[in-house]
Amino acid sequence: MAVELQRLIEKVAHMDVTIIAGEQGIHNLVSWVHMIETTEATDFLQGGEIAFTTGVGLNNSTSLLSLVEHIQSGNASGMVVNIGPFIESVPQEVIDFCNEHSFPLFVIPWKIHLAEVMRIFCYTITKDDQRALETAAAFKNSIFFPKQEELYIVPLSQQGFHMNWKYSVCVMQLEHCSTNLPLRLEQFSSSIDNYARHKYKNFAVFSRETELLIVTGNYSEEQLHEFIDYIHNHALSSLASGETITMGCGKLTRSIRCVYKSYRQAKAIQKLQEKGKIESSLIFYSDMGIYKLLLGIEDKDIMVEYYNKTIRPLVEYDEKNDSDLAIVLRCYLNHNGSVKETADELFVHRNTINYKLNKASELLDMDLSSLNNRLQISVGFMLQDML
Fold it and tell me: Which residue of 170, 277, 314, 378 could cross-link 272, Cys pair, CB 3.0 to 4.6 Å?
């Protein structure tokens, strides 16, 4: 995790730290601090650091502008200049460069000890990392080991998440990522956490394998919708070229003991989006229509058994004979039993549709003119989407 630069600066607001350029980058994420006095030292930057300098290493061949340019090119998040005997003031050319590149530049008077500012920054980042790791581990235990309450109830209570609050889990999946996925998810997690922390409390954001989890505590239904919409919009605006996200949000639980249920619902919704079975705008459990009933089935064996007795014979026939009876039947049901509309969508003759429907009816041993049978088959298709 990393901490937003603005949050760090707020920690030292009493120490006369002043921003003089690059204010547009004030929301950059800071992973650590680095003392840099020479351009050669910038080679050790890994990205995300905030750099400090007194100017002691500057000379005729190395100007402050050159040092700032090297630090900025090393993907640092900002820079603090100690105004004193080595740097009396910041040249206008440096200010212009930082403004042009939205690179935050701060000044601090010589009387303030840089070591103390750096200590506060390091402590804040470390404590934030510790809190995030402990909270993430506890919530993962509540989701995947719900019966082992000793692994999450006390740890989460210590982090301010109370046992009897209502909780909800949101699952976000990043698709078409062209870079290192775990690293990208970690960046996403930090970005979302810092973006929302100013406005919202009682939530945790963390990654797990290929997904990002967002857990809220003590939110009303209205607050939950507002928060997730807020996060969703930020995530969309943060996507790199070609990236997309799918997202699902489970219903509010009765207590912390039921967080795993909300996760399962959220994951099922996200998977339906990923498969293109529902619109990307359908995120919340409360908006899922008849899927709400199916998402409430905790015993997966029941879902599999129902699917096997309805849709599976048709799917197996298609796989064996390279046919599309299941596709035709689903399209037919989506068009409320209209052969003409089904034929129009699939670009085939109505006689072909009738032939395939009769074949499907024979294989399933079900009269497709029966409303009850159509409903059973429709539910079977929906369960197929969820399995």
Answer: 277
- Residue 285 CA to residue 252 CA, distance in Å, equals 9
Q: Are 265 and 271 in contact (CB under 8 A)?
A: no
- What are the structure tokens assigned to 386, written together? 């969820």
DSSP state of 176: S
pLDDT tens-digit series, residues 327-370: 988 888 888 888 888 888 888 898 888 888 888 888 888 888 88
Contacting residues for 351 by C-beta, under 8 A, at least 6 apart = none
- What is the residue whose two structure tokens read 């429709």? 378
Residues near 86 by beta carbon (within 8 Å), at least 6 away in sequence: 54, 55, 56, 58
CA distance 142 to 168: 12
Which run of H or of E encompasses 341?
A: helix 339-346
CA distance 20 to 11: 18
H/E stretch holding 177: none
Are 224 and 216 a contacting pair, CB within 8 Å?
A: yes
Task: Flag residues of the chain having pLDDT under 70.
Answer: 1
Task: Pick the closest to residue 50 from 125, 130, 143, 101 (CA basis).
Answer: 125
Letter for the amino acid at 306? Y
Do residues 377 and 364 make contact, with C-beta atoms less than 8 angstroms apart? yes
Backbone φ and ψ of 191, nearest 5°:
-65, -45
pLDDT value, residue 383: 83
DSSP 89-132: S--HHHHHHHHHTT--EEEEETTS-HHHHHHHHHHHHHHHHHHH
Among 132, 141, 140, 150, smallest CA distance to 204 is for 132
CA pair distance 54, 57, nearest whole angstrom: 8
Structure-token pair, residue 98: 């930082």
To the nearest 10°, report the CA torsion of 363, 298, 296, 153: -160
Point out which residues pair with 53 in neighbouring strands. 81
Calculated CA dihedral for residues 145, 150, 152, 157, nearest 10 degrees: 160
Coil, strand, or helix at residue 252? coil
Q: Give the predicted TM-score (pTM) of the model.
A: 0.74
